[in-house]
């Protein structure tokens, strides 16, 4: 491909994360494939410089804080053929009008899914040993090296949502020797079995599991999916793990259930987020809360850029994309 034939590209994301998402080596790969007039990311499509660039842009590389691709923005970009998102969910900036114009959309959500699945398995494993509570007791002067109530053998893990992350969690849990149940309205029993899980409904899953781990998208129908009634179905001593979205769990109901000592929780996401300082959940010895860090962080962020740059290369070469997002998937995506 001659230098002049490279398609025109534009980067639209928060400038504060651009260097982490697209460090020098990835930017070099990108500019070898695309002509990007000025490699500084655009944070708004309203300024004159961005508007002028939009006239010729064919491929948009988006990321965190990309402004919405409204009809007016798309009108200003008549040559736009593809949106390559160097992050997870596209819902904040891509709507039906993008697909209506035949624009191809790709997301790097697969690159974000791996660290979340790894984090989830690690949390389940550590919590099965009651590591978090016993660490607090140890710090307070109680050394208890042999506890009868701990261990991961024969534990049943219920996975809510066979999502991109949920499927990876099931595979990891199965390989680690856990018995796995899964509840997902879009999954069939044969596919569940292939992954290494038994398909069941959510209420039955709650009754039978030792660990409830959430991997469903944030949708109107999943709001407070785990409410007071479902928490009451859980066995005494059960663990709730949430690395998905805080709104999937009724925080007040969870706080009461954990405060009673009946169940434990490990939360990487909360409702509200951030959880206010001094919230009762922070005070409970059987609750462990992290600040939304299961997904790509720090050195891992380049995975998102790497995925997006490879998608650009595949698109220009006419090869199948690996992160294609279809219009009919928008309603089920996180």
UniProtKB/TrEMBL annotation:
Signal peptide (residue range): none
Domain of life: Bacteria
Keywords, in A-Z order: NAD, Oxidoreductase
Domain D-isomer specific 2-hydroxyacid dehydrogenase NAD-binding residue range list: 132-294
D-isomer specific 2-hydroxyacid dehydrogenase catalytic domain location: 53-325
Xref: InterPro entries: D-isomer_2-hydroxyacid_DH (IPR050223), D-isomer_2_OHA_DH_cat_dom (IPR006139), D-isomer_DH_CS (IPR029753), D-isomer_DH_NAD-bd (IPR006140), NAD(P)-bd_dom_sf (IPR036291)
Keyword Oxidoreductase applies: yes
Pfam families linked: 2-Hacid_dh, 2-Hacid_dh_C
SUPFAM superfamilies: Formate/glycerate dehydrogenase catalytic domain-like, NAD(P)-binding Rossmann-fold domains
PANTHER family per record: 2-HYDROXYACID DEHYDROGENASE YGL185C-RELATED, 2-HYDROXYACID DEHYDROGENASE-RELATED
Family the UniProt entry places it in: Belongs to the D-isomer specific 2-hydroxyacid dehydrogenase family.
Name this polypeptide is given: Hydroxyacid dehydrogenase
